Amino acid sequence: VRELVPGATRVALVTDARVGALYGEPARRALRRAGLAVTVLRVPRGERAKQSAELAKLWRALAAAGIGRHDVVVALGGGAVGDLAGFAAATWLRGVAWIGVPSTLLAQVDSSVGGKTAIDLPAGKNLVGSFHQPRGVLVDPALLDTLPARQLRAGLAEIVKVGMATDASLFRWLERESGRLAASEGAALELAVRKAIRAKARVVTRDEREREGGARTALNFGHTLGHAIEAALGFRGPLHGEAVAIGMRAAARISVAAAGLPLGSCARLDALLDELGLPRRLPRVPLARLVVMLARDKKRDASNVRWVLTPEIGRASVPRSISSRLMRAALLEAGARA
Amino acid sequence: VRELVPGATRVALVTDARVGALYGEPARRALRRAGLAVTVLRVPRGERAKQSAELAKLWRALAAAGIGRHDVVVALGGGAVGDLAGFAAATWLRGVAWIGVPSTLLAQVDSSVGGKTAIDLPAGKNLVGSFHQPRGVLVDPALLDTLPARQLRAGLAEIVKVGMATDASLFRWLERESGRLAASEGAALELAVRKAIRAKARVVTRDEREREGGARTALNFGHTLGHAIEAALGFRGPLHGEAVAIGMRAAARISVAAAGLPLGSCARLDALLDELGLPRRLPRVPLARLVVMLARDKKRDASNVRWVLTPEIGRASVPRSISSRLMRAALLEAGARA
Predict the structure, then answer these.
(1) Of the listed A220, A230, A242, A249, which one is catalytic?
(2) A63 to chain B: which residues are within 8 Å by CB?
(3) Helix, strand or coil, per DSSP, at residue B96
(4) Which of A49, A270, B140, B311 has its CA 20 to 30 A from that of A234?
(5) Is A208 a catalytic residue?
């Protein structure tokens, strides 16, 4: 922290109950030793942290902690903690520095590169936010040791996405290593994170602000439906990575029908996700509710939902709308109730 | 709007009850004629709009109105409406376009140039916000016709500030025209707004993000104490411009003692503010409470409050801390209760 934010005298260490109990004290001691005044701020676990009421609480806590323009917010936790704390940092005093210490596989890959911060609204996920690059991100594989196996698997979905949408060689590597990854072998996980971060950074540097049709839209592969699933279930259903896995399978099916993805490539994606223990089908959600949530997704333009499709493994096309017949078929195949 | 935001199909027209009743319908019809779908969103009058609960309501309303990435937020009202609506636009879908239509003299000068957006917290003013330039600002002198005289006078304080801190020739012009300005003569007001915007834009373009010690800090002249007065009275005391007038008088006294401002220049500032009908003394506020609020002001560094001082009319120095003895004396002279 001292090196990344030389002028800081105070730190707001934002974390949740689980991660805070495991790593909060060591982190606090390390920051103290660096000569910083530390205030630990607890937020709810998981997506519940990303509510506007929690954001308002966090702002008030930053005021009480006396966090000034040159001070720093440290986000120690999963993706939700990073999204919330990063957005609070983006808006506190019109922007202070923040540092990410992601504690889940998903967050190490997904939120550590890109500078997207956000909270949710009842109407949908990540509707409110900022682009605010962290001053630094500390990716520590040891933090994954205490992560439940289901969380690890969900994080692997995000790595599969990076491969499928942007990097065919990463995808092939995942296919070769899927056994070790499914068994949560530390060395394989660490390498997977490193490869995914590198591939993602390549995409993000080409398109920092996510322009319309820019390179970065590829990273939304599987997320159109994934977000809709999460929102339709009030963020109490599958984990983000699990929802994205279902979303990728559906998007691949649509890609076969509408973007020329070979059926064999679609089958390879399915097989890889199966191998990694990621779900095939939705929990029971009414089709109509999913369609409403899709329309609300922030990526839509006017009244059209735009899908990121993959003409081949490792490459995404510019997002585009598809026929409602095709969309309904894909949703039904994913397990939506008619 | 069509020219400034060509891709927009929907507009969220944010306004308050007073301005909305006077100008909401004509504005809505004009936008409709331009082929845009308009949703009018009402917010509370004045500073009460700038609360985190109002921001959360506005976000939900933007979701309900279906405002997409290419759509636009129009802020029709005083400075508070612009600050809130601009911040909502800065954070909605990580940033959509906004257009300001300031309806008070103060907002025409103060919020129309600079791109600062913000809300308040109980701990202080403008603690949370973004830099988010409006796509355009429509300054219409006709909107001032219905403005109460007290509001006009308060707006003139902001123009005096620009002259005192950055432009001696503007200050001298204000001295010459003070009679016509105090009488709310339309032509004089319009010219004053134009001159102040031009002077302010010169400063802002040199320092868009308000760097430490950058040119833009000059524009905080009078605001250190002004904000503290407003916060100490829970934003239910003097108007912003009135608080800034008191803040400028105190800062000028401190400048005489600590920055070499000639006593005669301090007297000229006092005379000009008197002539414009701006207050000399605080409503009764305990000194201790003001000091607490000063320490919380976001411009502070570590535990030092930094004051923008003026060594001469038309020029501000880099903000710096002053002795607590000097600060107490200035606050007591401004009318604080010991």
Answers:
(1) A220
(2) 121-124, 127, 296
(3) coil
(4) A270
(5) no
What is the C-alpha to C-alpha distance for residues B48 and A127, in angstroms, rounded to an integer?
Answer: 24
Q: Is the pLDDT of residue A111 over 80?
A: no
Write down the pLDDT at residue A300.
53
- Partner residue facing B94 (CB), from A60, A92, A131: A131
Closest by CA position to A27, among listed A75, A79, A87: A75
H or E stretch at B336: none
Assess contact for B245 and B272: CB atoms under 8 A: no
Which residues of chain B are within 8 Å of residue A121 when distances are taken between CB atoms? 59-60, 63
Residue A216 is among the residues annotated as catalytic for this protein: yes
CA–CA separation, B121 and A65 (whole Å) = 14
E strand spans, chain B: 10-16, 37-43, 72-77, 97-102, 116-121, 124-131, 136-137
C-beta of residue A212 within 8 angstroms of C-beta of residue A176: no
Res. B114 pLDDT band, cuts 50 70 90: confident
| A90:B130 CB<8 A | yes
Q: Is the dihedral of CA B122, B123, B124, B126 positive or negative?
A: negative
Residue type at B44 in one-letter notation: P
Interface touch B56/A53, C-beta < 8 Å: yes
Tens digits of per-residue pLDDT, B226-280?
988 988 887 778 999 999 999 999 999 999 999 999 999 999 999 999 999 999 9
Q: What type of residue sits at position B177?
A: E
Judge whether residue A299 has pLDDT over 70.
no
Is B153 annotated as catalytic? no
Q: CB distance from B301 to chain A under 8 Å?
A: yes
Torsion of CA B161, B298, A94, B79, to 10 degrees: -40
Do residues A316 and A165 lie in contact, with contact meaning Cβ atoms separated by under 8 Å? Answer: yes
pTM of the model: 0.85
